[in-house]
Amino acid sequence: MTDPPRRRDRAATHAALLEAAQRRFASEGYDAVSVRDVAADAGVDAALVFRYFGSKAGLFRAATSPLPAPADLADGSAEALPGRLLRAVVPDAGQPVGEEQLLALLRSSGHAEARAQLHRQMCDGYVAALAELAEEPGRDLRAELVGALLLGISLQRSVVGTPALAAASAAEIEPLFDAAVTALLGSTGHGKRADSPDSPENQGAGQ
Amino acid sequence: MTDPPRRRDRAATHAALLEAAQRRFASEGYDAVSVRDVAADAGVDAALVFRYFGSKAGLFRAATSPLPAPADLADGSAEALPGRLLRAVVPDAGQPVGEEQLLALLRSSGHAEARAQLHRQMCDGYVAALAELAEEPGRDLRAELVGALLLGISLQRSVVGTPALAAASAAEIEPLFDAAVTALLGSTGHGKRADSPDSPENQGAGQ
DNA sequence: CCTCCAAGTCATCAAGCGTTGACATCCTAT
DNA sequence: ATAGGATGTCAACGCTTGATGACTTGGAGG
Prior knowledge:
Helix content of chain A: 55-70%
CATH topology of the largest domain in chain A: Tetracycline Repressor, domain 2
Distance between the termini of chain A: 27 Å
Strand content of chain A: under 5%
Organism (chains A, B): Pseudonocardia xinjiangensis
Oligomer: homodimer
InterPro entries (chains A, B): Homeodomain-like_sf (IPR009057), HTH-type_TetR-like_transc_reg (IPR050109), HTH_TetR (IPR001647), Tet_transcr_reg_TetR-rel_C_sf (IPR036271), TetR_C_16 (IPR041678)
Protein name (chains A, B): TetR/AcrR family transcriptional regulator
Keywords (chains A, B): DNA-binding, Transcription, Transcription regulation
C-alpha cells in the first residue's frame, strides 16, 4: 500500500507471505495448499517461506495464530455480547473479520495441532465469556450451545452456502438469533433482561 | 465378521475399502489421506482402489454419497423431527450415524465438489424438512438456523471438543435444544408445544 | 566508488503422491 | 482336470511436494 517499487523489504515480504497464506489456507485448507502457491501469490520465491517461517507448519501457525481480537468483543456491555458475536460472524458491510482463521483451522482440522488451536480459541475466547451470561443449571453447556449456534451460522453461510442464511443480513437474523440465545441462556426463556449484571470482571481471554 | 479366510471376494473387498475410506476421510480430510493409506487399512493393494472406484476422487465420492438415510428421519411425526435430528447428531450409545460423512465433507470443503455435495445434502435433506415446521415470516431462514444449530453442535462435539457439550448426553442437551428450536421456528417463541413434551419413544437411529 | 551483509533466487534433492499396465493367483464352469 | 475370466499383487511411471544450500543481487555505510 505504501509504494509498489519497494523491493527487498523484509517486513513487506513477510507480511505479503502471511496474508497470502491466510487467504489460501482459509479457502483450501492446509494440505491442499503448497508453499509454492503461497509464494507465487505473494510474488516471491518459495524458499523465502522457509527463511521467514522455518517450515510450512510454521507458516500455518503464524497465519492462524492472530485470533480476531477478543478484546474487541469484550468491550461494551456484557449483555450485548451475543449480538456483537453475531455481527462478527455475519459481517454486514463485508468487513474483514477473523473468519478466515476459523475457516483455515476448520478446513485443516484433520491435523491435531489445528484442532488444538481451534479448541483453545473457542473455549478460552468466546465460550468463557458467554458462560458469564448463562444461568445456573448447566451454565457451560448453555454457553457452548450458543457457541454452537454461532459456529453453525458461520459455517452454513461460508461453506455450506445455505440460500436464505447466506443472503440474510445481520439485522434480519438478529431477532431470531436473540430469541434462540435467550432460550438457551435462561432456564426456560424467562427473560433475564436486567440492567445490572453480577459484575463479571472478566478481562478476557488473552491471546 | 463372517469369516476371515474368505479371500478373493469382490463385494467384501469393495466394502472394506469403502469403510476404510469413510473413516480416513472423516478424520483426516481428502488431501491428508493417500490411496495407499486406505488400501492398507483395508488390507489390500492400492491398485484395487482404481479397479473398483476409478480414482481417488471416485472413492471419495462413493464414501461420502450414501447420506444417512433421510427417509429414516422423515418417518415418524413431523413435530419430533428436530429431536430425532438431535439424536442423530449426538449419538447416545455410540451408534454409528452418518456423522462421518458430514465430517469428511467438511474437512474436505476446500474442494468445490465436496462443498457442492455438502450443500445438496444439507438443503435437500434436512433444511427442506425443517422448513415445513417453521412459521411464515422467513420460514427458510428459521429452518436454516435450526440446521446451523445442529451443525454447530455436531462440530463442537467432534472437532472443537468443547468440554460440556462433548460430555453431555442427548437427554441432557434436549431440553435446551428444544427451547432454542421452539424460539427459532415459532414467531416469537409463542410455544408451539402441542402434545406431550418428553416422550421420545425412539431409541435407535437406523442401522 | 567500493564493500559487504541482508534479501531474494535457482537448482536440486529425497520422498511421497495418483495412476497404470503387466504379471501372479485363485475360483468356477465345463 | 482344465481353461478362462475374475481378483489381487507388483513394479514402475511421471509429477509434485517440502526442504536445503549455493549462488546472485541490491542498497546502505565507509
